[in-house]
From TrEMBL:
The chain crosses the membrane at residues 12-30, 50-73, 85-102, 122-147, 159-182, 234-257, 269-289, 295-316. This is Phosphatidylglycerol lysyltransferase. InterPro entries: L-PG_synthase/AglD. The gene is mprF. It is a multi-pass membrane protein. It comes from Caproiciproducens galactitolivorans. GO terms for molecular function: phosphatidylglycerol lysyltransferase activity. GO terms for biological process: lipid metabolic process; response to antibiotic.
């Protein structure tokens, strides 16, 4: 009994997260006709397209490991892909289990340190990897907004507001990081001026603490850029892999759509919808964006799936969320075999 209690306490966050996300799905299914629709769809499911959705998720994991490995090998030539893949899966696991996906990067740094990497170098690698992903995601979103803005503006209520807030928030952060790398003094003055203004209009209660937090985050990226260098040969492949990864992840709803024997909606429209779902879900302060992810998927994809939207949400969450937790836990355990006592892997 004591062992069971200790196990529950150790994995309490995982249990709460899974219970919350599962509860949202079950609520939708049993308070609507979702379970009936799912039964009807299963008999007509086109397995080839469903397999492609699953393969896309697996390829996303592989891309995560590849991008991470390029950065790791840059500082540690003897580092290997197996380590990078396990670290990537650990990041996906803890991002799925923590609010705002905040636990992924710290656990990756911790795991890389356990595998023998210097903490500062591990932090620099993860900082560059994170910034790269954010830059590509914002750029991807800007292109799709320009391309599909009119369609979604007329089809989704409050689309303009949600999109603008998401793009401004992410773009502002990237702009600050870039400016900080060019001129730390100018950035500090700008950040302090904005925080003081927000404090005067009662939108920021503790200006000094907020400034220190933002400054600390910018300093991490600044130090990372100095350590990693400015090699174009390093960053171009990482950028290309990241674009491929985001595209694969955005194709999962389309493959699910085709597995339901539907084909009227263009693939580009559904890719755009998934990118917007990811952008909206990022603002949900719950592990795995529980509730927000399902809700935003319902809003953006309901017009495509019609009565089959709830089964679509179920399959999408299983493939793109629950599988990250399941296989992330598996590879977190496997990754322990690469741990070393104190030795640095040069």
């Amino acid at each position: 009994m004591a062992t069971l209690k200790k196990t529950i306490q150790k994995n309490l966050l995982v249990i709460i997260t899974l219970a919350l996300s599962t509860g949202v799905l079950l609520y939708f299914f049993f308070t609507t006709e979702g379970i009936v629709t799912l039964g009807e769809i299963i008999t007509k499911l086109r397995l080839r397209w469903l397999f492609m959705a699953i393969a896309s998720a697996v390829l996303c994991w592989i891309c995560e490991g590849c991008a991470l490995n390029l950065l790791c090998v840059h500082l540690y030539p003897n580092w290997n892909y197996n380590r990078s893949f396990c670290v990537g899966m650990i990041g996906l696991l803890y991002s799925a289990l923590t609010p705002f996906s905040t636990g992924g990067q710290p656990m990756q740094i911790y795991s890389m340190r356990k595998m023998g990497m210097d903490t500062g170098k591990a932090g620099s690698i993860i900082a560059v990897k994170t910034l790269t992903y954010q830059v590509i995601m914002v750029g991807y979103s800007l292109v799709l907004v320009a391309w599909k803005f009119r369609f979604f503006q007329t089809s989704v209520s409050n689309f303009s507001f949600v999109t603008i807030i998401g793009l401004i928030s992410n773009s502002a952060f990237i702009f600050l990081v870039a400016l900080f790398m060019i001129s730390a003094t100018t950035t500090n003055k700008l950040v302090n001026a904005v925080i003081q203004f927000l404090h005067r209009i009662k939108l920021c209660r503790h200006p000094a603490e907020r400034y220190e937090k933002i400054h600390g985050q910018l300093e991490v990226f600044h130090n990372a850029s100095k350590l990693m260098g400015n090699s174009i040969k390093l960053y171009i492949p990482v950028l290309v892999i990241t674009v491929f990864q985001i595209t694969l992840n955005s194709l999962i709803p389309y493959f699910i759509y085709r597995s339901f024997s539907m084909h009227e909606v263009p693939v580009t429209t559904m890719v755009a919808a998934q990118v917007f779902v990811a952008m909206v879900s990022a603002f949900v302060p719950l592990p795995g964006a529980s509730g927000g992810a399902e809700g935003s998927f319902y809003i953006f994809f309901g017009m495509f799936f019609g009565s089959a939207i709830l089964p679509a949400i179920l399959l999408w969450r299983i493939i793109s969320y629950y599988s990250n937790i399941l296989f992330g836990a598996v590879f977190a355990y496997i990754g322990k075999r690469y741990n070393v006592p104190d030795k640095i892997v040069e």
